[in-house]
């Protein structure tokens, strides 16, 4: 599978796509070498759907760039050795200094993002993911991006819209990953909401592939989920 092959042989690198998530997950997977629980068929189908949308949009952007002499990065591998992070960004339009990450979502999520009463406390892990890619661009080019945006595709009716986020998430990503580096000097950080896990929703057997080796996360600790 394409997704798996991208990470084969690089097990010790943290994943840029997991920016802003539970630090114990990084530790189990990339320091302790624990094999994550296999992903279920339902999740694989969602990944496949996401891959198809990515491919299609990236092809369209590539065609546009070729026809207009625009300089772009597409599906570009990034590495930040200082914090041991590796990943793949979706799209940078160089002349616009703009980074896009493509996401698919359902109508419920769309409403939370773009409805009349948007979620006042959105999960910031996607924002830090973009911040991580923006940090790489800064190292690579010596320039700071002007715009970071999530490009959403609504699966129910193929509607598309971008959500612009603050470029301050580049600094947020630096802080998050440097924090990971510092904490890991002392070993696997203890279970503590806000760090490990970062969000209570990620700490359950459905969203965490290390639930068993972790001993049941917040629930086992007696914290409310
Ligand atoms: S069970 Fe919870 S605390 Fe443990 S690795 Fe998973 S998300 Fe993190």
Fold topology:
Blueprint: H1 2-5, E1 14-15, H2 23-31, H3 41-68, E2 72-80, E3 85-93, E4 98-105, H4 107-114, H5 125-141, E5 147-154, E6 160-165, H6 168-184, H7 211-214, H8 217-221
Parallel strand pairs: 1-3, 4-5
Antiparallel strand pairs: 2-3, 3-4, 5-6
Helix pairs in contact: 5-6
Bound molecules: iron/sulfur cluster.
Iron/sulfur cluster binds next to helix 2, helix 7 and helix 8.
What does this structure look like?
This protein is α/β, with parallel strands linked by helices. It has one domain (2-217): Lambda Exonuclease, Chain A (Alpha-Beta Complex), CATH 3.90.320. Helix content is 41%, strand content 19%. Strands 1, 2, 3, 4, 5 and 6 form a six-stranded mixed beta sheet that branches. Helix 5 (125-141) packs across helix 6 (168-184). The longest helix has 28 residues, at 41-68. The model has no long low-confidence stretch (mean pLDDT 93). The structure holds iron/sulfur cluster. Residues 22, 24-25, 191, 196-197, 202-203, 208, 210-211, 214, 217-218 line the site of iron/sulfur cluster.
């Amino acid at each position: 599978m394409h997704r798996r092959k991208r990470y084969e042989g690089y097990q010790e690198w943290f994943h840029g796509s997991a920016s802003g998530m539970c630090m114990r997950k990084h530790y189990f997977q990339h320091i302790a070498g624990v094999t994550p629980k296999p992903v279920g068929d339902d999740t694989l189908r969602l990944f496949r759907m996401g891959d198809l949308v990515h491919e299609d949009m990236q092809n369209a952007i590539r065609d546009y760039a070729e026809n207009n002499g625009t300089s772009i990065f597409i599906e570009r591998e990034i590495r930040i050795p200082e914090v041991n992070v590796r990943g793949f960004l979706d799209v940078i339009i160089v002349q616009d200094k703009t980074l896009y990450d493509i996401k698919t979502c359902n109508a419920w999520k769309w409403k939370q993002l773009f409805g009349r009463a948007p979620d006042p406390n959105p999960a910031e892990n996607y924002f830090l993911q973009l911040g991580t890619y923006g940090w790489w661009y800064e190292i690579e080019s010596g320039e700071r991006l002007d715009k970071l945006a999530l490009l959403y595709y609504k699966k129910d009716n193929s509607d598309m819209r971008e959500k612009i986020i603050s470029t301050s998430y580049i600094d947020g990503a630096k802080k998050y990953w440097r924090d990971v580096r510092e904490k890991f000097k002392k070993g696997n950080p203890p279970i503590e909401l806000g760090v490990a896990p970062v969000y209570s929703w990620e700490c359950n057997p459905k969203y965490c592939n290390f639930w068993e080796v972790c001993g049941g996360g917040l629930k086992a600790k007696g914290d409310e989920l």
